[in-house]
Amino acid sequence: MSQTAASQTVLDTLIIGAGPTGLSCGIEAQRAGLRFLIVEKGALVDSIRRFPTNMVFFSTAENLELGGIPFPSTHPRPTRQEALQYYRRVCEYFRLPVRLYTPVTSVAREGGLFRVSTATGEEFSTRTVIVATGYFDQPNPLGIPGEELPHVTHYYTEPYGYVHTRVAVIGGRNSAVETALELYRHNARVFLIHRRAQLGESVKYWLKPDIENRIRRGEIQAFFETVVEEIQPRRIRLRELPTGRQFWLEVDFVIAHTGYRPNAELLRSMGIRLDPHTLIPAYDPDTFETNVPGIYVAGSVVCGCETWNVFIENGRAHALPIIGDIRRRYCPTAAP
After folding, report:
1. 147 within domain boundaries
2. In a domain, 100, yes or no
3. 130 in the same domain as 54
4. Are residues 274 and 229 in the same domain?
5. pLDDT band of 194, cuts 50, 70, 90
6. DSSP structural state of residue 282
7. Is the same domain home to 126 and 265?
8. Which domain range does residue 219 map to?
9. Are 192 and 215 part of one and the same domain?
10. Which CATH number covers residue 318?
11. In the predicted model, what is the mean pLDDT of the chain?
12. CB neighbours (10 Å) of residue 190?
């Protein structure tokens, strides 16, 4: 479908997000004979593209597959690089209509249709909308002075920019542990700062003994039950939670793995109700339709801030009931 044709045709559904869940929804929409388009604010599977370069998935390859297409991997668990190649090839195999670098700015109802406007100036008319935006673009802020400084980041890609520097890694789950270990193995001086008394229970089983040994030997210095209260160039101020004691730690960089959340502003602008604490949207657990008739949520966006509940392996399964409900209720004449 050409750019002009897509903007002039009334779609059966428009899918926001070209991650694995969005692609899965596209595959099922194609099989159901629906007219659809996938729009994505960044690159194809952009969240995976922004994962650490050397990341290895916890899931096995078969749990990451889409559309019945086998996921070939030379490792017991696939790498980020393999996933990027796999999802690109799946998109090409099904010839999914995907509009990349097209951020959605608003979704508004006009009569019996939705008008979807984008930052590129395009507008699309569609009977239904599927929101599969994930959460990786919205890091949880620390909410402390200095968080905006240039040596502070909520994302980590590779270790080479940190060689022979002092790095504070904030967090105690998989991302923080993987970052700390990789930095340590590339000759960075690593400080791991975690507000809880121990590492997260979900830390990958092959990483936990590794990080515990590094901490026990003093190769990575860990501060448990400790929070960062201020960031300055070259140093951070810490506070021990049990005692209240405050002290300064000299560092060159801060990597804050504080978790992520969905784009609540976009969801609310569509009229979707969100739990004020968890940001979980109001939706039917059988069909994934929200409180706004015709707007559905899919993938990790359904779990709000509780991002540990939905992953690729269960998020991809949302596509089938969503497309089935759309075809039955909104597009009964569609022919697969």
Report:
1. no
2. yes
3. yes
4. no
5. very high
6. P
7. yes
8. 152-256
9. yes
10. 3.50.50.60
11. 93
12. 26
- Asked if residue 134 and residue 68 are part of one domain, the reply reads yes
Residues of the chain with pLDDT > 90: what percent?
82
The Cα–Cα gap between 90 and 65 comes to 9
Q: What is the pLDDT of residues 198-251, one digit of tens each?
A: 998 888 888 999 999 999 999 999 999 999 999 999 999 999 999 999 999 999
Residue 256 · residue 154 · CB < 8 Å:
yes
Query: Residue-wise over 69-87: b if at least 16 C-beta within 10 A, else e?
Result: eebebeeebbbbebbbebb
Burial classification of residue 316, based on how many CB atoms lie within 10 Å of its CB (0-12 exposed, 13-18 middle, 19 or more buried): buried
Picking from 204, 221, 256, the residue at the C-terminal end of a domain is 256
pLDDT (0 to 100) of residue 257: 94
Q: Residue 6: helix, strand or coil by DSSP? A: helix
C-beta of residue 24 within 8 angstroms of C-beta of residue 66: yes
Provide the token pair at 217: 């030997």
- Tell whether 250 and 268 lie within a shared domain: no
Q: Are residues 40 and 111 in the same domain?
A: yes
Distance CA 316, CA 39 (A): 17
Q: Report how far Cα 81 is from the mean position of its chain's Cα atoms.
A: 17
Classify strands 113-118 and 123-131 as parallel, antiparallel or unpaired.
Answer: antiparallel
